[in-house]
Design goal:
homotetramer, 249 residues, alpha/beta, Vcp-like ATPase, Chain A, domain 2, Rossmann fold, 2 domains, seven-stranded mixed sheet, four-stranded antiparallel sheet, 14 strands, 24% helix, globular
Chain lengths: 249, 249, 249, 249
């Protein structure tokens, strides 16, 4: 990889804290009386250590957690990473998502799928997602639509996978089913047990091989003499529901 | 997608049980006195329901969990999916892995990375991994080496990411560092706390932005009238350690 | 403590396995070709090691897990221990419970509360619980009733705490409220989210300071060179709901 | 129970927040522009609701979490409740504990055991624990010692159970063993994996039936229309190790 350039976003690590910053000449980052001048970073190789600071090119996870503007609850990387593979995505697959939200899942899909379509009915969220993807140069295989999935014209039997992240997914199940290829994968993100219960009541006959699960992530302190889990952890983000399109003969 | 063909592997779901089977004419699957004749499956569309059976094309997760032959402890999909994204992989990235084990992580990497190199010192494991990848037609971007990573000639500053799954990773840290590009990502899978403690003692100076974590997966019963977690869950697979290559000036 | 006597129940530990046995002369325990003759145990002090066997007097947890006959789902010690203290029990407190089930929670209450009343409508369960408590000489502060709590004559404003372990607790809420002293504690054990949702809808106005929680227990392997959690764990037993009696002025 | 009296401590609940306050005439509690005058509480029955406030007599858990002054890391109720029963305590049992810390475990033991001895070497901690127990009138079966357990004169074969909560328990194992009756229970609270590993290396031969575990507590939101776990949870407090005294013949 090439050395850091003026204007690019970098991840700066200072002990237990992380920062995402744009490398603008003459600017700097101050943490606990230590100063990192961006002029000293520009031109240096990735992974450079300057004083107590370490500077890297951000991963997609860093961008989502530190850089994405949020108008809605973000999909956590722990969930997004699992979803992308669980849906069976790879470079030859087409995936459709609604609603786009802040675009985090969209960004993750873009790294693995061949084609990503994402629908968001609320204009404010659509604009935020668009800005997030453009700002960090997320791959060009994403089509964002500021449109209600329920009203949009969607090609039939076209997608290998569909992911649904809206509060009330139940009215869309038929349309999701139609948009999928035979045997295609479907996924849902639902924060509450009530939503999962209602979805399980509605899903039958349309989708099979149903799985319901949660992904939990437990971080550990990194001091080798006192190895132990962190005191606090994220207790819940959402329930995930997965299935496959059933085909009537 | 096209309809099921003779000789392909399919996922068969019968209530709570899953089976991976090759569609060989005249053969069948018997579950609790119900019979699925493969001749009735061949030619049908994906997602077909026949009696109490549902038949799908398997996802990579299905192949790993049900189809991969195992000579070593398998890397669980919950972990493999997280690792692949945490390392920052996408179609433009090159990743190296050792040891290959049964090839599960290798298969996951192949779906997202541009180039996958995988080293396995033990011939028996190498052959098993090779058979697993070939049997299920895993993408051609994987190079398997039956070679000890410690002794192999590895290009320097070549890989965007390296993943290490061996019992004693400590002697290889320098070589891993050299094989990575500046700021490249490294990951380790370690079943015991003792290994993590020893790694954390050894890693300093070579890698920064260290994170240690576990991924836990909690499945739920799918009966809408009695929504609740499954009685049993996987309690532990491994600790995951991630870092980034530090570059001395 | 005195040495082991003929006829008493003992906990026998053999590596990772545990057994509850009655010390009957001439009998023995065979584990993997090793034999523990009970005649060699009688007269020995507690904690004795004979060959690979260790012999102890059982704790209440050992009795519940290994000795209690079960006609119903048992309340796990991890839950029972928490419940007993959460209800604020001690030697001066009176607690009522229904249904008795196999008597496990009853046995735990008996060790800490001054007075325990327990109602069980199903005769078979009542008899099993009675047998369990008598067999292991559980303290005499327990009154077992083979009676439906809903129909029983219960003293009013009498109990410091009430615990409810029945499938449909909603019809009993008024009666539970009446049986409690002002500000008394109430607890519920409910396996499914649907039950908790329905209880939360019904409870309002009668009880305040509501808490809903789960207790999870993660066991670790005890080999110091390979410290790590057990591969499997109990994923779910039940949701616990606690509250306090509200008093209208 | 009798009505609230001047000078007693009460638990005040206001929506999601809890307060422990002493009922001093003319004083009051202000939460979000609502005022609870203590003069209106005195003389009222427990469980009274005044405006959005609910007032109860505190349970031991409330006292520990809201009332205990802390000079050291407190033992969480979820752990303390489990420990007390796991050690097999009841009104006929004698338990010894060191170090006392803030006295939380001591207070829990006092509710169930017949006799509690607690040693604390650090004078400041000893005084805090003493103040905590006296302030809330914890039962008189507790003897607090401002003494180093290692140097104290401890009766031999006297205790049914011993609990150890010090950073370096290893030098005390022999003395703990001597203080216990044959087959007596021992427990340890250790925040880090390193401590558990070292303890497991040291414990052998002295104690058997070893168990290592963690207790996790997951709270849920109490809104029936949106039932789901809380966003954040306590990720780790400590590892617990339990065993039984082995007796050499």
């Amino acid at each position: 990889m090439s050395s850091f350039k003026e204007g690019e976003y970098v991840l700066i690590v200072h002990n237990d804290r992380k920062f995402l910053r744009k490398l603008i000449p003459k600017q700097s980052l101050n943490v606990k009386k230590e100063v990192l001048k961006f002029d000293e970073v520009i031109g240096k190789p990735e992974g450079v250590r300057i004083g107590s600071f370490e500077v890297y090119r951000p991963t997609l996870e860093d961008l989502i957690l530190l850089g994405f503007e949020r108008k809605t609850q973000i999909i956590y990387p722990k969930d997004a990473f699992y979803i992308a593979f669980k849906l069976g995505l790879n470079g030859e697959k087409r995936v459709l998502e609604f609603g786009t939200g802040s675009g985090a899942l969209c960004a993750v899909f873009s790294q693995i799928a061949g084609e990503v379509w994402s629908y968001e009915a609320v204009e404010e969220f659509y604009k935020t997602a668009k800005k997030n993807l453009e700002r960090f140069g997320i791959k060009g295989n994403v089509k964002l639509f500021n449109e209600d999935f329920g009203k949009a014209e969607i090609p039939q039997n076209y997608f290998d996978a569909v992911f649904v992240d809206v509060r009330e997914p139940y009215p869309y199940l038929e349309k999701v089913h139609q948009s999928l290829k035979d045997g295609g994968s479907v996924g849902f993100l639902l924060p509450t047990a009530n939503q999962v219960i209602k979805l399980l009541e509605s899903i039958n006959g349309l989708f099979g091989n149903i799985e319901v699960l949660e992904i939990l992530q437990r971080y550990y302190k990194r001091v080798p003499e006192r190895f132990r889990p962190e005191d606090q952890m994220v207790g819940h983000t959402a329930y995930l529901v997965f299935g496959r399109k059933l085909t009537s003969l």
